[in-house]
Amino acid sequence: ISISSLAIPINKNEKMLRSPISPLSDASKHKYSNDDLTSSSRPNGSSLLPSISSSKKHKGEIQSQPHPGDFNKAIHNNSENVLLCNKPQFQTEPWSPLSTTPRDCRRTKLIFDDIPRNADYFMQEAKRKKHKADAMVEKFGKALNYAEAALSFIECGNAMEQGPMESKSPYTMYSETVELIRYAVRLKTHSGPNATPEDKQLAALCYRCLALLYWRMFRLKRDHAVKYSKALIEYFKNSSKAAQNPSPWGASGKTTGTPSPMSPSPSPVSSVGSQGSTGAPSPSPIISIPQRIHQMAANHVSITNSILHSYDYWEMADNLAKENRDFFNDLDALMGPITLHSSMEHLVQYTQQGLHWVRNSAHLS
């Protein structure tokens, strides 16, 4: 719609406005009086053209009107209103936070697709990104590409959880991803006077990933940890009772009539070192336990350690985030805050958005 379609230029032969919707017949032109004109084109009951009352009656007055700019201005305003109402709203501008504080214009929002993909697809993407990082020399860019490759490995592990189990378990995939992220963090130091804001932002994002990965690893093995815990508690409870009720047999194998203060072992399968025939009891520094109990204890420690690592990395990420409040406040406002209970999908998208900002800020391709 243009201004020319809204009105016909006024000359000696024609002074009427033509409707942009449908043409008027000769008979209706005279019927289209001042009342129809003002009622159809005035907002809130006020006329946009107050100086025109009738095309025939004021033919000479319109030609000699002292302020011809008012008519043109009204026509322009009327057409502009029509154009604004019909204009589609395209959101092509970069994302900006709700606050009035100016932010970096390069912080654009990524578009994420929801197309379901299998674990093989994410595995190939992860390998491609990792090979790209392997070929790089610059440390910051290398660490950034390793972090992006780790996100694809996380998506691969998450796809393994959702779909049928493949050659590797999700726990193994997450465990190997942890090692890759820790290596990426060690490539570029984020402490010291030479550390840039981008170094700290990258490290904070990696620590968030490590915290949630360790927490997820514990959740996958939680049932095993509960079984190990019950078995170990039962074993040590029986060992404690055996230590409180020592054997009545002495060192010579004969009964002494009274319980010997030097019990052979704190458990039925435990043994102590050599003990003297006389003298004060000397507890042995070595206690034997069954192989089964030893393996249970080792597995239990490995699983429960994931909780400690998770909280440690979360606190480290919090400390770095405090030094970059604007960056992470904007990221939380755009993607939603991340917690230890966030899903793997939220973690990946949150971190991808943050890495995208870090890459743009560091002027990396």
Automatic annotation (TrEMBL):
Protein location: Nucleus
Residues passing through the membrane, by range: none
UniProt keyword terms in alphabetical order: Nucleus, Phosphoprotein
Region entry Disordered, spans: 15-75, 241-286
InterPro entries in the record: AF4/FMR2 (IPR007797), AF4/FMR2_CHD (IPR043640)
UniProt entry tagged with the keyword Repeat: no
Entry's Gene Ontology cellular component terms: super elongation complex
Bias-annotated ranges (Low complexity): 268-286
Bias-annotated ranges (Polar residues): 35-45
One of the Pfam families matching this protein, by short name: AFF4_CHD
Domain AF4/FMR2 C-terminal homology, first and last residues per copy: 105-364
Main subcellular location of this protein, as a coarse class: nucleus
Keyword Hydrolase belongs to the record: no
Biological process according to GO: regulation of gene expression
Family: Belongs to the AF4 family.
Full protein name: AFF3 protein
Organism the protein comes from: Certhia familiaris
